[in-house]
Amino acid sequence: MQTKSDQNAYRQSVLSYVNLNQFAYPFAVTLTLKQGISGSGGYEGRYQKIDMYEARRNFGLFMNLLNRQ
User: Fold this and answer.
1) What does pTM read for this prediction?
2) 58: exposed, middle or buried (C-beta count within 10 Å: 0-12, 13-18, 19+)?
3) From CA 37, how far away is CA 43, in angstroms rounded?
4) How far is residue 56's CA from residue 62's CA, in Å, rounded to a whole number?
5) Of residues 69 and 18, which shows the higher confidence score?
């Protein structure tokens, strides 16, 4: 059984290990890119895969949104 001083020592060691002051921005953002979209306009009922050009374009737009201040 742990004593109160053991619990405090453990708590302090965990807090020093997970010191968030060392990180400038301690956040994580995930980008999920769809592999395809359902068609619209003249392509209704079709599934259109996204090519590398569209993926790069969407990623660039995403990064621009993140980098805005």
Assistant:
1) 0.45
2) middle
3) 10
4) 10
5) 18
Phi-psi region of 41 (alpha: psi -120 to 50; beta: other; left: phi over 0): left
Domain residues of the chain, as ranges?
33-69
Q: Which amino acid is at 22?
A: Q
| CB contact at 8 A, 32 and 55 | no
Between 63 and 21, the more confident residue is 63
Distance CA 39, CA 45 (A): 6
What residues contact 37, with CB distance under 8 A and at least 6 apart?
47, 48, 50
Question: Which of the four pLDDT bands, split at 50, 70 and 90, describes residue 18?
Answer: confident
